[in-house]
């Protein structure tokens, strides 16, 4: 499909190459997202195997670097899209210098960069949240040797953990938990997606199925895999099997 634009003076400008460039940039962005996912999994592996602090900090630096690349790509794609829309809107008499216009917009966006932008990156936020949950689930120790989480009665701790492993929809232990980034509650992935689909067919909003939660508009886009919780469930099950084997 042609993406030519006719200028007022009769000349035509093709945006096909622009579309191709945007497509390539989006592919690059998907590679960055994959890299961030891998870095998150490596960090969780390190916490689970008690190789904390320095090694995990190095993974956090990697995440920040990825977030910076992601921001730069987003700015460049925005600059391209805004330039194309500007040309179509203003319809200049002569064919403009696309490269110059894009560079000008991109530079303006980059000049407003701040470190806080990187810390708001969705995958970086997810990385930090998962690390926090992972340390909590495994009652991990801080670098100075003190307990990061206050020790409580072991039986109560186990009971609370097992309660956190139960899906509020199926009332069964979760195998693929996903966390709602709006209210923070977790559900079995298949169960919540089916729940959302059924309510959508009824043209109704989805209230969080967790008793007492006031969040009344759960969306599939708000759900994130809860890798830390999944690992905690797997670890608990391994310990249960190990204990069972010892008693047989």
Structure, described:
This protein has eight helices and five strands; from the N terminus they run E-E-H-H-H-H-H-H-E-E-H-E-H. It has helices at 16-48, 54-90, 98-110, 115-119, 122-137, 154-164, 189-201, 227-247, and strands spanning 4-6, 12-14, 177-180, 186-188, 223-225. The strands form two sheets. Strands 4-3-5 form a three-stranded antiparallel sheet. Strands 1-2 form a two-stranded antiparallel ribbon. Strand 3 and strand 4 form a beta hairpin. Helix 2 (54-90) packs antiparallel against helix 5 (122-137). The longest helix is centred in the first third of the chain and has 37 residues, at 54-90. 19% of the residues are buried. Mean pLDDT is 83; it is low at 140-160.
The main sheet orders its strands as 4-3-5
Helix coverage percent = 55-70%
- Provide the structure class: mainly alpha
The H/E string reads EEHHHHHHEEHEH
* Mean model confidence by pLDDT: 83
* CA(first)-CA(last) distance: 69 Å
**How many helix segments?**
8
Q: Please outline the major beta sheet.
A: 3 strands, antiparallel
pLDDT < 50 runs, ≥5 residues: 140-160
* Share in β-strands: 5-15%
In terms of quaternary structure, the protein is: single chain
Q: What is the total tally of β strands?
A: 5
Radius of gyration: 24 Å
Molecular shape? globular
